[in-house]
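Supplementary Methods, section 5.1.

A reviewer requested that the exact input to the structure prediction be made available. We therefore reproduce it here, unchanged from the version used in the analyses.
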Amino acid sequence: MSTMMKACVAGGNRPIRLEDCPSPVPGTDQLLIRTRAVALNNADLTPRDEDHIAGYEFSGEVVAVGSGVDPAIIGERVAGTAPSAFAEFVLVHHRHVIVIPRELSFEEAAPLPTALLTEFGALSLAGTGPGDSVLITAASSGIGLIGVQIAKLMGAMPVIATTRSASKRAMLEGLGADVVIVTNCAGPGGAGWAAQVLEATDGLGVTTVLDHVAGEMLNATVPATRRGGQIISVGRLSGAVAPVNLYGLAVRQTSLRSVSYGFNPSEVIGDLLAGVSEQILPAVADGRVRAVVDAVFPFTRMPAAVERLSSGQAKGKIVLSLPWPGRYWQALPWCSGAA
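The structure derived from this sequence is encoded token-by-token as follows.
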């Protein structure tokens, strides 16, 4: 293996660019992955000052292992989450991957790990099962789409999805949403759509909210929640701060939790992905749970892929493919407006 690799570097107040970087070497508890596909997430759009290899989500083949890892996994097709994923090779903790079902391509698997562990983790924390009703905000986001499917798989009824775009209604219904609410048609600050949730739940409200937005949206979910229900803050598309009517929570005896599944300690993601492998991957293999892919770009068109994600028009995840064997590019003078 070459000592150098191509990687997408961001930061330093410059556009994302393709550069030569040292190839990584696996350390204790690590796998080295030859990357076959990567997926974009909203976190990839967050500016950072320091130069860094971008990306968090990938699929590929295990080509080497560090100490403490059974070498029998070499050659396995896996998908996972790790920093610095947008590169020809990526290092990942051995528990931060899932084995790709043989029915899936690398491009179909790359957008799964982050959404699966996040939505499975949140819904498991809520104890979701038959008899529960679930409201998922920003359900047409790449992560929210997986949340709709996992909630249905766990037996929730109804699963209620919100979206700002009426054009995404059919997609959400096709994935199992029982009710789809277009929030930008429901009045200022979401006023009116909570009434639609109550109507769909015989006036009771949902037992669980998975909120991916925060901001005013999180507060708007309070009157849509059943007495004794719970709100799980999973995402912060509107920022990390949200005004909350504490009296409203108290009156409805509603609990509010906020979760974030980072890379440290490693046991957090490891335990979640172990649960995903046992409880969710069979449904991924047979098609009951799947990533919705808006578009697949070649790795050399990363700026165009970022532009597509930034547009807010994508219906599902943006994936980039890295064909092997052999190098197929030269260093490119990428800029943010590249096509």
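The mean pLDDT is 91. These observations are discussed further in the main text.
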